[in-house]
Specification:
With 118 residues, the chain is of the alpha+beta class. The chain has a single domain (5-113), classed as Nucleotidyltransferase, domain 5, CATH 3.30.420.100. The protein contains 4 helices and 4 strands; from the N terminus they run αβββααβα. It has a 4-stranded mixed β-sheet with strand order 3-2-1-4. The protein is globular, with a radius of gyration of 14 Å. The protein starts with a helix and ends in a 5-residue tail after the last helix.
C-alpha cells in the first residue's frame, strides 16, 4: 500500500518527535512549511508554551518581493533575533517531517548565522 505524501510526513514527524523535546533552557524549534508561507516556533514542551515565533506573514518580510527560499532566510534570521533577545542561544531543531533541503535548510542556516546553536 503506497503512502500519500501527508502520511509519509506524519510518520517521519512521529519518529522525530520521540527524541525531540524542548525545555525552557533549550526549546524545540519547529518549522511549518506550506506552499506559500513558512513559519517557525520555539516551543517549551514542559510548559506547553510557545516562547518565540516568526512567520513569513510578518509585515517586514511580507512587504519584500522575494522568492520563497529568500523568504525562508528572512524568517530564520528574524527568529534568531527574537530568540537572542529572549535569552535563548541553543535550540533543538524539529524539521517537522519535512526533508532537510530547500527552504527548511535555508531557514536553519539563517538561524545559525543569527546566533542560534543546534
Amino acid at each position: 500500500m503506497a503512502l500519500t505524501k501527508q502520511n509519509r510526513r506524519l510518520r517521519i514527524k512521529k519518529r522525530i518527535r520521540k527524541s525531540a523535546f524542548g525545555t525552557a533552557e533549550r526549546p524545540r524549534m519547529t518549522v511549518f512549511r506550506s506552499n506559500k508561507e513558512i513559519s517557525v516556533q520555539l516551543i517549551d514542551d514542559n510548559a506547553g508554551k510557545t516562547i518565540v515565533a516568526a512567520t513569513s506573514l510578518i509585515k517586514d518580510i511580507a512587504d519584500k518581493k522575494v522568492n520563497k527560499t529568500e523568504q525562508a532566510e528572512l524568517v530564520g534570521s528574524a527568529v534568531a533575533e527574537k530568540a537572542i533577545a529572549a535569552g535563548i542561544t541553543t535550540v533543538i531543531f524539529d524539521r517537522n517531517g519535512y526533508l532537510y533541503h530547500g527552504r527548511v535548510k535555508t531557514l536553519a542556516d539563517a538561524a545559525r548565522k543569527g546566533g542560534l546553536k543546534f
